[in-house]
Amino acid sequence: MAVTVPLLLAVLAAFSVPDVLAHGGLANYTVGETWYRGYDPDLPAADQLGQPWMIQRQWASIDPIFSVDDKYMACNKPGVPPPSYIPIQAGENITAVYWYWLHPVGPMTAWLAYCPRDDCTEVDVNQAEWFKIWEAGLLEGPNLAEGIWYQKQFQHWDGSPDLWPVTIPKSLKPGLYMVRHEILSIHIENKPQFYPECAHLNITGTGTVLPPKEYLKKFPGAYDANDPSININVYATNTTNYTIPGGPIWDGFTIVDKYCLGC
Ligand SMILES: *[C@@H]1O[C@H](CO)[C@@H](O)[C@H](O)[C@H]1NC(C)=O
Ligand SMILES: *[C@@H]1O[C@H](CO)[C@@H](O)[C@H](O)[C@H]1NC(C)=O
Ligand SMILES: *[C@@H]1O[C@H](CO)[C@@H](O)[C@H](O)[C@H]1NC(C)=O
Ligand SMILES: *[C@@H]1O[C@H](CO)[C@@H](O)[C@H](O)[C@H]1NC(C)=O
Ligand SMILES: *[C@@H]1O[C@H](CO)[C@@H](O)[C@H](O)[C@H]1NC(C)=O
Ligand SMILES: [Cu+2]
């Protein structure tokens, strides 16, 4: 099936047939050698919600979100918070583990939001201030429709775990944070599909900073439905030009006032 799946996807995309293939989602996380099990929409919710091991916000189905204004853009639906946190040091990688990711076209981004009052369970995910720490788009031409995106490169097409490592900025102030991984699939013309999933992190380390205001975004709010990178027909033009939505990545060094570093 490894050969026919991409072919089938190309056919589906060309005819704008609604999504019929299961495309999976963010199943687990790893930090170093340690695995953290996430929510599984195929298992009973009652066996998972509130379990002491749960570190991910609930996503009840693998279906995408179609509107940038949807309140579930923040942390999927229904986004019930978990009781536990993944411990991680600033500077370490958190690796998101997906199963059966099958869409090939579109950018991927990772975001953090600081949880005030030492608690992520009480945070309103729509009011949280998210900052982008990682992104990847088109890696190689010849154009948006046929090129190799990170979204296509990171997947294995066969159900073995697809790994997506992201580094927590070393300079980040320790504390409790939410991490938000988002895949945006744009293989269907002018019908973007968003796949966000969130987990809770307990970040330690020797960092001291948070990003300045211009990096802080809300979901909904961060994206514009008319953004040419979101409302896009990748089959219409032969180009490699693509700007990943959501503004720049915070590099972990730009602090409070870029003209006043260290003062
Ligand atoms: C995620 O973890 C669960 C529970 O340990 C396991 O059954 C499942 O195979 C894992 N999924 C992936 C994609 O690694
Ligand atoms: C850590 O994550 C970065 C991307 O953020 C990646 O380039 C690097 O290979 C990762 N390292 C490991 C050991 O996974
Ligand atoms: C976060 O980690 C610190 C350091 O290990 C620990 O003292 C604290 O209890 C943890 N907080 C939570 C909510 O897990
Ligand atoms: C797209 O553009 C590339 C580079 O300019 C060119 O090599 C290729 O033939 C073009 N493809 C089509 C289908 O026009
Ligand atoms: C392509 O580049 C132009 C600027 O040259 C920009 O206006 C446009 O939004 C870009 N398109 C995408 C999809 O990023
Ligand atoms: Cu899909």
From TrEMBL:
List the protein's name. lytic cellulose monooxygenase (C4-dehydrogenating)
What highest taxon heads this organism's lineage?
Answer: Eukaryota
Which segment of the chain is annotated as a signal peptide?
1-22
Q: Give the main location.
A: secreted
Which subcellular locations apply to this protein? Secreted
Identify one Pfam family in the record. AA9
Q: Which residues form the Auxiliary Activity family 9 catalytic domain?
A: 23-242
- Offer a single GO CC term for the protein: extracellular region
Tell me which InterPro entries the record gives.
AA9, AA9_LPMO
Required co-factor(s) are: Cu(2+)
Record carries keyword Iron: no
Organism the protein comes from: Diplogelasinospora grovesii
Instruction: Identify the keywords attached in UniProt to this record, alphabetized.
Output: Carbohydrate metabolism, Cellulose degradation, Copper, Disulfide bond, Hydrolase, Metal-binding, Monooxygenase, Oxidoreductase, Polysaccharide degradation, Secreted, Signal
The record's similarity note reads: Belongs to the polysaccharide monooxygenase AA9 family.
| Residue ranges that the Swiss-Prot or TrEMBL entry lists as coiled coil | none
Matching entries from Gene3D superfamilies are given as: 2.70.50.70
Task: Tell me the Gene Ontology biological-process terms attached to this UniProt entry.
Answer: cellulose catabolic process
Q: Which reaction does it catalyse?
A: [(1->4)-beta-D-glucosyl]n+m + reduced acceptor + O2 = 4-dehydro-beta-D-glucosyl-[(1->4)-beta-D-glucosyl]n-1 + [(1->4)-beta-D-glucosyl]m + acceptor + H2O
* UniProt GO molecular function: hydrolase activity; metal ion binding; monooxygenase activity
Give yes or no: UniProt keyword ATP-binding.
no
EC number(s) recorded for this UniProt protein: 1.14.99.56
